[in-house]
Amino acid sequence: MELVNVDARRKRFEAIAPAVIDAVRRYLARRTDPATADDVLSETLLICWRRLDEMPAEHLPWAYGVARNCLANADRGRRRQARLTARIATLDPPPEVAPAPAATGTDLTAVLAEMRPEDAELLRLWAWEDLTPPQIAQVLGVSVNAATIRLHRAKLRLRKLIEAAGHEESTEGSRP
């Protein structure tokens, strides 16, 4: 009997996995470097397999939430490594290196980098992942109302930053 459950579980995971893999890979590619994205994708899939019985019918927002948490863990690990590197560098400093040139222009990536990380993530989930406020709420682990309000405020902040950067406001979709 146990073999039947394992087989059914495997089939369910195999049916869900392609959509999860593609969507989570794109989600991570927009948020981190390729090596970290691959590591986090692997960890996300492992957690999805382990917690398959907890996965809701609408599995993609749930998987985004798992990937988001795994990426946060990877970022914390990277920060710990950077602190360790800084401590080592004070004991044995590397040779002087010229600073990288500053980026110019005000593309969307630069504008998002100026925003609070929470606001930028909301906007990415909405615009890049094409999630609705209820799905965003599931990813972030907040109420639908909170996600809707935060998304609205993040859009307003984005508009202000774009206008401050000298771009004209888009009239697309506005009412006369």
From TrEMBL:
Keyword Membrane: no
InterPro entries: RNA_pol_sigma-70-like, RNA_pol_sigma-70_dom, RNA_pol_sigma70_r4_t2, RNA_pol_sigma_r2, RNA_pol_sigma_r3/r4-like, WH-like_DNA-bd_sf
GO molecular function terms noted in the UniProt entry: DNA binding; sigma factor activity
Keyword field: DNA-binding, DNA-directed RNA polymerase, Sigma factor, Transcription, Transcription regulation
GO cellular component: DNA-directed RNA polymerase complex
Lineage top rank: taxon: Bacteria
A Gene Ontology BP annotation from the UniProt entry: DNA-templated transcription initiation
Domain RNA polymerase sigma factor 70 region 4 type: 108-158
Regions crossing the membrane: none
Entry annotated with the keyword DNA-binding: yes
PANTHER family in UniProt: RNA POLYMERASE ECF-TYPE SIGMA FACTO (PTHR43133), RNA POLYMERASE SIGMA FACTOR HI_1459-RELATED (PTHR43133:SF8)
Family under the similarity heading: Belongs to the sigma-70 factor family. ECF subfamily.
Protein name listed in UniProt: DNA-directed RNA polymerase sigma-70 factor
Species for this entry: Actinoplanes cyaneus
Gene label: rpoE_14
